[in-house]
Every structure is written in C-alpha cells, then in structure tokens.
Design brief:
single chain; 32 helices; Rossmann fold; binds iron/sulfur cluster; Dimethylsulfoxide Reductase, domain 2; 33 strands; 6-stranded mixed β-sheet; 36% helix; alpha/beta; Barwin-like endoglucanases; 3 domains; 764 residues
C-alpha cells in the first residue's frame, strides 16, 4: 500500500501558465472545429478517428459515450451527428497510447497519485487486467480467471452480502447493467449506488411524486415546438452541446428562451452552428432572449415570485391559470394556493437576487406563453432543497397546463449517456417491490427487499467499517463523490477495491488493501462473442432506447466487455448456488434483452424494435397525462424558501465544469467559454466581493467550508474576477469536492449539495 489516501486525493496542477481573457459571447463555430481537430490529431490514430466519427450517433453506429442528449428521430447529419465534446469523449476512448504491465512496473501507485487528473487520464487505454496485492507499491498483471477468483474469494468470505458495494457509472449499457444488478441481487444485497445518486436523483424523486414518473416528459420535437423554454441551472454549451441545435430550431420556429443561471454562459448567449456555412460566416444565432442572473440557490424564491404574480393576475383578471387542466388532471391546488398566499412577492424577489426589470421581462413571457418547457441540470439538483426546486417548477407548469401536450413539459437533462437506462433496467438501491417480484418470478430466487446504500450511504458505511469490498462498474468514483478526503479514507478501509475501466483514473490510485483494474471495451469497439459481434442498447434523456454497436477492433486482445466481466464474476462467485446460466448471456446478448422484456414494462419486442434505426420510445405517463401517482393525478406541492444566511465573511460556492471536461474526465486545462486557460485551480468571484476582501486578480487564496463545526480546506486557488452575483463564487469540480460535506445533501434524494457550499476565502 502506498501513502495516505489524503495525499492521493490532491490534484497538483501548477499555476505558472494561467491566462485570463474576456469570456466570448459566442459559442461553437470555427473554434469548436479547431479544438476538435487538434484534439483528435494529438491523441488518436487518424484512420481510427475517421472511421469512428463517421459512425458515432449515426443509425446503426455506436452511441456517443458522452452525455445523454438524444439523436434526432429522423435524418442524421452526414457531416457528423456530434459536438466538440462528443468528439473529445470518443477520442479519450480511442487514444493511441496503450498502458500495460510495463507502465505499471515503471510507475508506482504513489507516483501516479501525484499526477494531475489530466495527466492520469492521458496516460492511455488500459490493455490488461492488473492487480495490486496487499502492501505492494506497484500494480502487476493478473489473468482474467485469477481476477474473477480473487473477487469471488473476497465476496464469499464476507459475513454478510451487504458488506459489498456495487457502483455503476452512466456509461454501462442496458444489457450489462441488467445482468450486473441481477448478479448483485442474487448475491444477496441491494447495495447498488450509481452516478444518478449524485446528479438527477432529486429530479427523479420530485417528478415521481408530482407527475408519477421520475423522467422528463418532452421529446426533441416538443423542444422545437415550444413557445417558451426556460433553461435553469444548466450550461448546455459545455455539458450537452447538441441541445443548442434544438434550441436554435425552437428559436427559428418563433420560440423564446430564458436562461436562468448565476453565470451568463457563452453557449446560451449565441450559438454558431458549425454545420451551417452561412452561420459560420455571419456569426450565429442568439439563443437566450433573456439571461436572469440568479443568486445561487435562489430558484425556489424565483419561481415563487412568478407564481405569486400569476396568482395576483388571476385574481384580478382571470384566465391566467389553465383551470380546465387543473380541475381535470391535478390534485392539491387549493392547499398550494393557500400556502402561496403566505409569501410576499418582494421578499421572494429579493431572495432570488433578480432585478425587478429582469423579473418583469420573464414574467411577461410566462404570462403570454401557453406551451412552456423547463429544462434543468445540476444547478437545480445539487442543493439541500433540490427536490423543492424541481417541485416548484412543476407547480408553474401545472398552473399553465404545460404538461402532456405538444411543445410543453419537463426536461431534466441527463449528464452521462446511459444513466437513465441503467436505472430503468434495475440499477437502483431502492428498487420498487413490483420489480423485485418480477425478478423472483423469473429467476426463482428472492431478492432482498431491504434498501441498499446510495452513494452517500456507501461512503459512510465504508468509513464505519461496514463495507469490505467496493466494485465500480465504470466511472471514477473517488473523483465524482463529495468530501474527497473522507471518501478516500473510506475506500482505503476496504479489503478489496475493483474498477472496470477503459482508462486509468484517480480511483485506481485510491485503493483498498488490495485492488484490481479490469480493462473493458469502449463503446466504439467491436464486441466479439461466440454468436458474433454484439449489439447493445442505451436510453437517452428523452426515454428513447436505441442500439449501439462498435466499429473499431478492440485496442487490445486482453479486454473483456462489461457483460463478459459481469458473467465471469457472477459465475466465479455464485458457482453451483446460482439459478442463472450466466455464460449463455455472454455468448449472445439477445438473451439478455429477452429477459429484460419479461421483467421490465415497455420493452416488448425488444430485440425486434432495437433494429429500428432510431430505436423506440419507452412509455411515459406524464407525456399522455396519465399520471401514475398515488391519486392518479399530477400533484401540486408546497415548498418552502431555503433557510440559510451568510455571515459577513462567507460566500456561497457552486462547483462547475470547465469546457474541456466531461464529468470527471479532464480533456484539457482550458475553459475557453469563461476565458480561463492552462489552469483549473481558480475561483470565480464577484469583483465587489474581491474588493471587500482586499483580494486582487490572480491572488492565490485558500478556501474553507464549515459545516456542523467541521472545517474542510482546499488550498492554492487563483482569484478570477467574474460576472457572478454578489456573495456567490464558483470553482471547478472535482478539485473542490473536498469542500462538499458528506452530510450536506438533498432531502429525500441525497444528492450532494455541491452547488451550495458555504465557504470563506482567505489569502494564502
Ligand atoms: S451532445 Fe452529448 S451525446 Fe451528443 S455528441 Fe455531444 S457529448 Fe455526445
């Protein structure tokens, strides 16, 4: 074992090259093309890149391993159905450098832990299974059989199956995810935390309660036809770039767009579609008609202010609320209105941080438009009151009747390509009883009904010595989770940590007493099995299930698919006590889909419908005004204003992603849409707040958070003066995850409150 987990959780980029420029007011265009080409040429073999890019997001091709934005149902552009960050996600996967036993013999775990996340990620594709024995300083090669047997030995020596945790990242396909949860349930636990615990769990929780389905209700076509789209707490230009094309279409059809976010992000100011030569030359489309510079966590106050003004208008003039919809389809209207009347408009406006002028401009549009879509991402979901944020926006849509009709509805935008699908096929620590009953009926074993650990619960359990084995199916757990030092200590307490990965990442370097790295195929690679090259499937943000099939030969002959890894681990662990013929699934993934069809609603004729070039839509009750709630109606809810105040020296901080980043993967050190180059350890501050603290541009500071008497510190950040509301600041994820207290999470959903961390900024 190498040195302390605490040391390994640091990311030591240096400061010397930081450059700050004025943030641009336009996005994509030539700059995106230039950046994509330079990235591809630096890191890939050109022929692989051409072959893969021609097939990514095309019908019959492979699904982008980046975000979960849907592909158009109809025609796909032959020029390329992807964005700059999709190209970068693909490039990461098809890197020309391979790392093998020689790499690990040269570099100790301690040495690698000293590299930056960027350097770790760029070391290359993993090409053979590796094992870190107890007390060793270097990973060493291991055969697949020995790796499976080691996992089996650890799992079978646990006193209780609940001493193992099985994490899933959102890249895992439906087939692999279904088998994985099946193995975990047959093994005897529900400990299936996943990345949605950290992003849209709050959306799922709020939408299930109010609309009866934990997913969004709109399609791409709805976005094109909306009269008003409100984009709240989301930066699509970086995190879901092709959404900009959909917003551009909406604008072309006469729709209006309001961006509600503490930062004015370039993607929502103007978008130059790189596939439109005229726009490339003439300068793009303005996207947001209004940008509302809301204070961090001012969202409930903002929506309440709108609701109060709508109520006032309704009482004065009538005809504002859609009473036909409310009477026929909703529940709880009267108590919602009674509660709303206890709030004061001016107080709400003040708490939202919005000027009266900006509010009036927004209000006029909301009042006028009858087809409203609200889109959101982690700016809403990562607060202690995240569930309230989403329930309050649903209240607005219900008053307007903007659910279950063309051009209207909810649009939570998912971050990772199959995060939604993984949950649909059973990756859920709190799966419904009906699903468990179907598993029992189909496979003849009784899955435990006890709820398992979410991500937060799993980390706490590790620290309390209740977890002995951690198994990560994809992802970079330690970089994604909050409270890095505490989480790393928990990982170090495990007897065995296992990661199924395509590339090296920090989680391989923050290990348990023993550790395994199991290298797997990328999306772009052909999955050869006994019955031929396999097709798999994924579900995007709008509930469309489509096929994904790799086109390149695997980068190494020693890779296994995620399906094969699950089957291998399951067979080795469960041996004669399994009721399932695991190796048959590995030979032919059609068999997995046949099972999914039997166990999960909406997948009838799965194999047949997967052949449809654009896939198929899963049922969505909210889309048809068939609300599967307790009452059969959509629910109004009562939500309180968040109750926190800052002391004089405190700021509220949110973590954000740079443009050269996808979740925990760092593509580069630039954030050109915010004018920051060559450095990630920066803190964006309002210039007035800087002046109050006597802080200069690029001064080095330390940041500390205090939560329930515990102080957490992050050192060496450079101050960047920025247009961000007063008393707010922003830093990059994952560098400041260290400041996110493990106990600060959304009520009901347990999403970490990574967007509202109370901090003080101190000169270094
Ligand atoms: S928008 Fe998302 S899914 Fe589409 S190419 Fe870009 S990263 Fe990939």
């Amino acid at each position: 074992m190498s040195s302390s987990a605490e040391d390994k959780s640091k990311t030591p980029e240096t400061f010397k090259n930081l450059k700050i420029k004025t943030p641009p007011k336009n996005s994509v265009g030539f700059e995106a093309l230039k950046s994509s080409v330079s990235y591809i040429s630096k890191y890939t073999k050109p022929l692989d890149a051409v072959k893969a890019s021609l097939k990514m997001n095309q019908k019959g091709g492979f699904d982008c391993p980046g975000c979960a934005w849907p592909d158009p149902d109809d025609e796909r552009s032959s020029l390329g159905e992807y964005c700059e960050n999709g190209i970068k996600a693909m490039t990461e996967e098809i890197q020309k450098t391979l790392i093998d036993r020689n790499f690990f013999a040269t570099h100790s775990v301690d040495e690698l832990a000293g590299w930056s996340d960027f350097e770790i990620g760029k070391s290359g594709r993993l090409s053979e299974p590796m094992y870190l024995p107890k007390g060793a300083t270097h990973y060493q090669p291991i055969s697949w059989d020995n790796a499976f047997n080691k996992i089996a030995k650890h799992l079978n020596s646990l006193e209780n199956p609940d001493e193992a945790v099985f994490y899933t990242s959102g890249r895992t396909t439906n087939e692999a995810a279904f088998l994985y949860q099946l193995f975990v349930r047959e093994f005897g636990t529900s400990n299936l935390p996943d990345c949605s615990n950290m992003c849209h769990e709050a959306s799922g929780s709020a939408l299930s309660e109010t609309l009866g389905i934990g997913k969004g209700s709109v399609t791409l076509d709805d976005l094109y036809k909306a009269e008003l789209v409100m984009v709240v707490g989301q930066n699509p230009g970086t995190n879901h770039p092709r959404m900009l094309s959909a917003l551009e279409k909406c604008k072309k059809n006469g729709g209006k767009i309001i961006a509600i976010n503490p930062l004015a992000e370039a993607g929502l100011i103007k978008f130059t579609n790189p596939q439109n030569p005229i726009k490339l030359l003439t300068g793009g489309t303005q996207i947001a008609d209004i940008h509302v510079s809301i204070t961090i966590n001012g969202d409930v106050a903002f929506f309440k202010a709108i609701l109060l003004k709508l109520l006032e208008k309704e009482e004065q003039e009538g005809g504002v609320f859609n009473m036909d919809f409310i009477n026929e389809y909703t529940h709880g209207f009267e108590s919602f209105i009674t509660d709303l009347k206890t709030y004061n408009f001016e107080d709400c406006l003040k708490a939202s941080g919005i000027t009266r002028e900006a509010f009036d401009a927004v209000f006029d549009l909301v009042l006028e438009k009858k087809k409203i879509i609200i889109c959101w991402a982690m700016g809403l979901t990562q607060h202690q009151n995240a569930v309230d944020n989403i329930r309050e926006l649903v209240n607005l849509l219900l008053l307007n009747g903007s659910i279950g009709k063309e051009g209207a509805g909810t649009c939570p935008v998912r971050g990772h390509s199959n995060v939604q699908g993984d949950r649909t096929v059973g990756i859920w620590e709190a799966a419904p009883q009906a699903f468990l009953d179907k598993i029992e009926a189909k496979y003849g074993f009784k899955p435990t009904v006890k709820h398992g650990y979410s991500v937060i619960d799993a980390i706490k359990a590790m620290n309390e010595d209740k977890v002995k084995v951690f198994f990560g199916m994809g992802g970079n757990f330690i970089s994604a989770v909050p409270d890095t030092v505490y989480s790393a200590k928990g990982m170090a307490k495990c007897n065995l940590t296992v990661h199924v990965s395509t590339k090296l990442n920090r989680s391989h370097l923050v290990t348990g007493k023993e550790a395994l790295i199991l290298p797997t195929l990328g999306r772009s690679e052909k999955d050869h099995q006994k019955s031929g090259v396999q097709v798999q499937s994924v579900e995007n943000s709008m509930g469309i299930v489509s096929s994904t099939k790799g086109v390149l030969e695997p980068c190494s002959k020693d890779l296994l698919s995620e399906v094969a890894i699950v089957c291998g681990v399951a067979q080795a662990t469960l041996k004669d006590r399994t009721k399932i013929h695991w190796l048959a699934y590995q030979d032919d993934y059609n068999l997995v889909r046949n099972d999914i069809e039997e166990v999960i609603d909406g997948f009838q004729d799965y194999n047949k419908r997967l052949n449809k070039p654009s896939g198929f839509y899963l049922p969505n009750g909210a889309r048809e005004r068939n609300f599967k709630t307790k009452t059969g109606k959509a629910h109004f809810t009562i939500n309180k204003l968040p109750n926190w105040t800052l002391k004089d020296d405190e700021l509220i901080m949110m973590t954000i992603r740079s443009h050269d980043q996808f979740n925990t993967t760092i593509y580069g050190l630039n954030d050109r849409y915010r004018g920051v180059f060559n450095e990630r350890r920066v803190i964006f501050m309002n210039r007035h707040d800087m002046k109050n603290r006597n802080l200069q541009e690029q001064q080095v500071v330390n940041i500390q958070s205090e939560f329930k008497g515990v102080i957490r510190k992050a050192s060496n950040f450079k101050v960047v003066g920025y247009d961000i509301p007063k008393n707010c600041c922003a830093t990059y994820f994952p560098e400041t995850n260290i400041l996110v207290p493990i106990d600060s999470f959304a009520h009901t959903a347990k999403t970490p409150a990574s967007k509202s961390i109370v901090v003080t900024v101190l000169p270094h």
